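Hello support,

Our group uses your service weekly, and this is the first time we've seen a run hang past the timeout. The protein is Protein slit like protein. I'm not sure whether the cause is the sequence or the server load. Input pasted verbatim:
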Amino acid sequence: MNELRERIEMKQDRRKIYYDKNRKQVFYSPGDKVWVTSHPISNKFKRKTSKFAPRRDGPYIILTQRSPTTYEIASPSDPSTSLGTYHTSALRSYSRNMEADTPLHPIRKRGRPPKLNFPFSPGTNRLPDNSNSVSLPRRRRSQRGRMYLDVNDISRMPEDLNIFKDLERLDLSNNQITVLPNNIVSNLSKLSTLILSYNKLQCIQVDSLLGLKSLRILSLQGNDISMIPDGAFRELVSITHIALGANPLYCDCNLRWLSEWIKQDYIEPGIARCAEPRSMKDKLVLTAASDGFVCTGKPEAEVLAKCDACYTFPCQNGATCKPKPLRDYECICAPGYHGAKCEYVIDACYGNPCENGGTCKVLEAGRFSCHCPAGYEGDRCETNIDDCVDNKCENNATCVDLIEEYECRCNPGYTGNYCEKKINFCSKEFNPCKNGATCIDENYSYSCACSLGFTGENCTININDCLDHLCQNGGTCIDGINTYRCQCQDGFSGAFCELENMVDLLYPQTSPCQHHDCKHGVCFMPSNAKDYICKCSQGFTGKRCEFLTSINFHDGSYVELDPLHTKPDAKVSITFATEQSYGVMLYNGESQHLAVELFRGRIRVSYDVGNYPVSTMFSYETVSDGNPHTVELMLMKKNFTMRVDNGTSRTIVNEGVKEYLEVSSPLYIGGVSEEVASSALRQWHLRNTSSFDGCIKDVRLNGKLLDFMIARKQQRVAPGCSELEENKPCKEHLCKKGKCVPLDKSSYECQCRKGWSGEHCDQAPTCQKEQYREFLEENGCRSTKMIKMANCVGSCGDQCCRPQRIKRRSVRMICHEHSHQTNTIVSSLKPNVKTGQFWRGVEWKVGYQPIPVSIMQFGMEAEGMRKKKAWVTSSISL
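Update from on-call engineer: The timeout came from a worker crash unrelated to the input. Re-ran successfully.
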């Protein structure tokens, strides 16, 4: 029986520890004022205090703390007399706006407040990755102080942690911390949770956790801790959990105190196991017998060196090793030695007096000599030998002294090691002019007279003759030397692709496709059709595939167009897809400009109508994900508005005197030419002049779809945007009265307009008004004439039929003789004094499905009257 009672008591104690651990802790100091919560309604049969009707009494003062969760209180008028010990769940901090309800009732049983969860999710105080600084924003007093510094590669405990005195939770897990220094968190008296798991901790010093009297949870799991000094946890009076698992604990007599302390105070140590010595290996610290923690010999040097860097005797030549914080040490050298480990002898060469890499050699006591490297001289190798004293430079060349040599810097027109040769610029061996250019010797320089088709200082640049080509009908210009040729599309010929190919009239016409006019596609004759259709090549649209509306850009690509017209306003819309984070999308300007580019995956806009400084804006959305996006731009005088994917519009204003963006230079899409790129980068219009890499389609300028075929110039672009045009199930959808919504790459569904239904939204609404007439009767009263009303019939898809408008009208009603009449109204009673008539307001909704009328009662006197007429105001929908 006694054994059973002990088990029950142990179970109750463990349950108490569990609830105390999960209860929100509030700490009081002697002299603090508190309210006491009591429960006057008690259950005498079960001898328990009820949870019902709690009352507040006080205020009282705290005398002393009896345990981590209980306090002894007294009356402020008699602080020497104790009124009993109370659990923290029955105490509340004193506030003047709180009043006492009833006298104090002793609390007979400790309450169990609800469990509190401590989330380990990232907080707002988390440091950026790879950071060693602490940045905690200001918080309201009512907010719990939390700091998350996990996964930051921190190698040392931040030295300024003690300034955050209100901190309650600190997470430093998954870092590189090796040592827990003394007094590092001594000011964090409110800290309840400290997480140091999965670091490289090897040493916990005796005063490392000093001052943490509120600490309940300490996580040291997954470190390299072998020994913990006795007394390291002496101030952890509130501790309930210590996680020590996955540490190579050395369980000899020096760690016996930890096992006894855990068992004595019911501390939960997790799965802390011993690693050494062999007799204790794999035993749990919680369950291992205390007499097993014995010292049978000296621990290995590797274990002792974790907290004592001097244990391996790193100092040499009889030096004294002095331990320093953070597992460091200092060697105090014996006389005559120096160095970090006292490995060097102090002699005449101490401090290396030789300069410029000279080698010091001791000659005898107090004397040394320096052996200088080549090119230096002097007692300490301090002088660079002047090699220009007897130089051989000719033709007024400049001699530059080097180390053990010199260099001759020649004047223009001369060359050679000593500038002894005059340059014959136009000689066969040296002639720099290329591509058949004529070299002109100008004594000390030269110039090149270039052949036709070339330019540049040395005539190395082939002039692009395609800048003003005359190729027609989609022909591609191919540059040559001082000429070009046109590569025609199918169906065209001629020097400039200006001629359509003639049909061979010798053969009979068997198909309309023999005379088709599909520009950039193939002719297709469907079965049982009277005419052909054109199936366009990628990038082309139109009935005859005559418009190029989508193109692919890559490195060095761009399209040059006429300047953008900005008066009275301008609208630009671009649909695009890219996986690159940088690239020019649109540029038009000189000093005034509009620049739209991708910058770090977002859309950057620079807008300047001539009012300094430039206005800049970035999109909230990231668009470099390879998916299609649409950006809409609107210019209205100084105002510029951008919207991405029909989202929220953003606007900037280029404030100043000037009103409009006025530019005469070409409009570029997808990139810019080299000359424009250099200017735009120099003026900070563009942050990166790389060409757009991806697809652009459906470009609309002032509402008109852009045909890239009419561009001034197309540079390294290819028709078509496979990323945007493939896998579009809604391209040929069958939704009649609704919107096509893709479900995946091959299917879609129709979202019907209001009232429409059916798989393809092809069933029209049949809901309509059905009018009728009848008398309105209520409580023995009836309208004098039939009232016109309406019902709804039919269907409205998945929408309800409801009235859309309501009309109010007056209805005259007649009532039978009664001494006391009870009628029904909605609005207030309004008598007519002259005629003795009564008015009532009734709301009657008709049109689609009518809503029943709600009626209220009223009384009417009718003394000495056989019949009375009542006028009623009704509201009827028509």
